[in-house]
Design a protein that fits this description.
The complex is a heterodimer of chains A (about 475) and B (about 180). Chain A is of the alpha+beta class and about 475 residues long. Chain A is built from 17 helices and six strands. Chain B has a three-stranded antiparallel β-sheet with strand order 2-3-5. In chain B, strands 1-4 form a two-stranded antiparallel sheet. Chain B is elongated. Classes of the chains: A alpha+beta (about 475), B alpha+beta (about 180). The interface of A and B includes residues 42, 356, 358 and 448 of A. Bound molecules: iron/sulfur cluster (2 copies).
């Protein structure tokens, strides 16, 4: 009985994962500053330690030693709860990320005579592991058993659902923080975050559904496993190749979900000072900033799991071709974690790259993007995927049992995606243009028109004219 | 403003690529990627300040011409080592920031009537416009090329007569009167 079986695996996976993630979060801030300076022909922080590598330490120290100030009129409880809640939610969401596939362990147990062998075996394996096969007799009183567990903190069969539910809660941190600050800028930041969330959760959910329809499971580990094979022997069966359009929409939506530029309206520093964290100082501000980066890690991890095959890297498969997720080697498990992490870092780099390339969207543009293009488009993609899969299933009986997309189906889905993209392009030319927002509209009585201010007795008539005018305007639009 | 004075502009109709945003976005991201590579291959535009200074770099390469630079003040001395200033208050009158404070006293020397007993310049309020230098009838006050002056308190940054005269001793080699 070694220490591995005394401590359930999810405990040490959790400890290591949180350690790695929290350190990464600190270094992501440094990376962001570096990327920012590289795009602007600068070098970035390079004074603290070699290449500025100790900068996060200095930043953290600064955060700790700043005055922990709470302005008057704030809601004392909510003001402190908001950053904590935000960080908590993101950390909880990290639990279902399938870092390293399934680890299979072979071990031996000794059973006293007269004891139930199966019960003893089940009692000896870690909490969240499953027994594989029957215990087999090695010698009298000693049995060889085999068990496997998913190398993630919580192996939920509804992982994706859990993730969507939990991640949507992160917006509460923004809203509550903005409200509790007793500051108009913070409040507007919170309001914007709300409106943004209800717009972007819908296409995000629809893109997730597209993948769920393809793979037939909500278990993130299994979604990854189903991408761990090849189409035509060479192309890795990652969903991004079958669903480029869904991926593009998903990527955009997680930018909005993580409150990242170009959708960082909630903290738009040029208009709203600091947005929802205007009034925050010290480590409370630190938590808000860190949770933004932690959320980036989570959303990128989901993106990698759904579209980039998670831990799958060509050439890095488990011993069992039928179940590529299963491996009995520690080295492979750790390598898989490394591959996963590197993929996540690449996606995060894209986040940063986009941030320093795109100007921020205006609010009406953001809404237009969500409601006029993403929601219809993602609905159509979902529908088309379902129909395409229906025909694919009708042809291929083995699909129903394994539910792995084969090369032809992938090609079909790719074609459908590109077709929809082109169709949308054509349609966008044919459809009438969107209403002209932000146009100056002369309203009687406003300072832009010369309609005189009505006398006391005439108010009724003026209101009537105004109403007619507005109805006329809205008919025009 | 009258309604007739307002010109309402129509947005130009976007091309398909523009309307779809993604191609144009990729062009923009290409630009930033190009700059990232340029920086990473050593073509950044950073001057590592305390080690490198702008005055050491040619002006066409982003350097700075010190001859026209207006830095911290100095009070000039004449051949006898006496302060040149005659406390005429021209500079403090001309100063738009009101940061020169002079207290005049009767001069101990025969060739002038007054001299400054006290001469303070608040270097934090000064906007380094050079008006004092222009106004001085005896070229007693001048702006040097020193720009990296530091102090830990505001009080330290109010330069008195001694400090300003010391400034002259420090800079007279480099910048003769
Ligand atoms: S440089 Fe301008 S602001 Fe400064 S002391 Fe002279 S006159 Fe005043
Ligand atoms: S520095 Fe020049 S202008 Fe100012 S008081 Fe002295 S003599 Fe007059």
């Amino acid at each position: 009985m070694d220490w591995l079986s005394v401590i359930p695996p999810f405990v040490y996976i959790a400890l290591v994962a949180f350690g790695v993630v929290l350190v990464t979060v600190a270094y992501l801030i440094l990376l962001e500053r570096k990327v920012a300076s590289w795009t602007q022909d600068r070098i970035g922080p390079n004074r603290v330690g070699p290449w500025g590598l100790l900068q996060p330490l200095a930043d953290g120290l600064k955060m700790f030693f700043k005055e922990d100030y709470r302005p008057g009129g704030t809601d004392k409880v909510l003001f402190t709860t908001a950053p904590a809640a935000m960080m908590l939610v993101v950390i909880v969401a990290m639990a279902v990320i399938p870092w390293g596939g399934v680890h299979r362990v072979e071990t031996q147990i000794s059973v006293a005579a007269g004891q139930d062998v199966l019960a003893a075996a089940i009692a000896s394996i870690p909490m969240n592991a499953d027994l594989v096969g029957e215990p087999r007799v090695v010698e009298a009183g000693t049995y060889g058993i085999m068990y496997e567990y998913a190398f993630q903190i919580a192996d939920l069969s509804i992982g994706l659902l859990f993730l969507v539910a939990v991640l949507s809660l992160a917006v509460y941190g923004v809203v509550v923080g903005g409200w509790a600050s007793n500051n108009k800028y913070s409040f507007i930041g919170g309001l914007r975050a709300t409106a943004q969330m209800i717009s972007y959760e819908i296409p995000l959910g629809l893109c997730l559904l597209t993948i769920v329809v393809m793979t037939g499971t909500l278990d993130l580990g299994q979604i990854v496993e189903k991408q761990a094979h090849y189409w035509g022997g060479v192309i890795p069966a990652w969903n991004v190749f079958a669903q480029p359009l869904a991926f593009l929409m998903f990527l955009t939506c997680i930018h909005a979900e993580a409150n990242r530029s170009p959708f960082d309206l909630a903290e738009a520093e040029q208009e709203l000072v600091g947005g929802y964290h205007t009034e925050y100082t010290s480590m409370r501000l630190g938590l808000l900033l860190l949770s933004e980066y932690a959320e980036m890690i989570v959303t990128s991890s989901v993106c990698v799991a759904l579209f980039f095959g998670g831990w799958h890297l060509p050439g890095l498969l488990g011993p069992d071709a039928q179940h590529p997720a299963v491996t009995s080697s520690w080295v492979v498990v750790l390598l898989r974690c490394a591959v996963y992490f590197i993929k996540v870092l690449v996606v995060i780099f894209v986040f940063m790259w986009v941030r320093w390339s795109m100007p921020r969207f205006r609010f009406d543009q953001l809404m237009m993007l969500a409601w006029r293009s993403f929601i219809p488009l993602s609905l159509v993609v979902l529908l088309a995927t379902a129909i395409a899969l229906y025909f694919a299933v009708a042809q291929d009986e083995s699909f129903r049992s394994l539910r792995r997309i084969d090369g032809y189906t992938a090609l079909l889905l790719f074609g459908v995606n590109i077709g929809l993209l082109l169709g949308a392009m054509v349609l966008s030319r044919v459809l009438p243009p969107p209403p002209l927002t932000n146009r100056r509209i002369g309203i009687p009585g406003s300072r832009f028109s010369h309609t005189p201010v009505p006398a006391a007795g005439e108010v009724e008539a003026v209101v009537q004219t105004k109403r007619e005018f507005l109805v006329g305007v809205s008919n025009q639009l | 403003m009258k309604d007739t004075e307002i010109i309402e502009l129509q947005e130009p109709r976007l091309s398909v690529a523009d309307q779809f945003y993604v191609p144009q976005m990729l062009v923009g991201m290409g630009t930033t990627l190009k700059h990232m590579f340029m920086t990473l291959t050593g073509k950044d535009r950073v001057i590592q300040y305390p080690e490198e200074k702008r005055e050491d770099i040619p002006v066409v390469e982003g350097g700075m011409n010190l001859r026209t630079y207006r830095g911290v003040h100095r009070l000039n001395k004449d051949e006898g080592g006496r302060v040149k200033c005659v406390a005429c208050f021209m500079c403090s009158t001309a100063c738009p920031a009101h940061c020169i404070h002079i207290e005049a006293g009767e001069s101990p020397w025969a060739d002038r009537e007054k001299y400054p007993i006290q001469f303070d310049i608040d270097e934090l309020r000064c906007i380094y416009c050079g008006m004092c230098e222009e106004a001085c009838p005896v070229d007693a006050i001048e702006l040097t090329h020193e720009y990296d002056i530091v102090g830990l308190t505001r009080q330290e940054m109010i330069f008195d007569k001694e400090k300003l005269l010391k400034m002259y001793d420090q800079t007279v080699e480099k910048e003769p009167m």
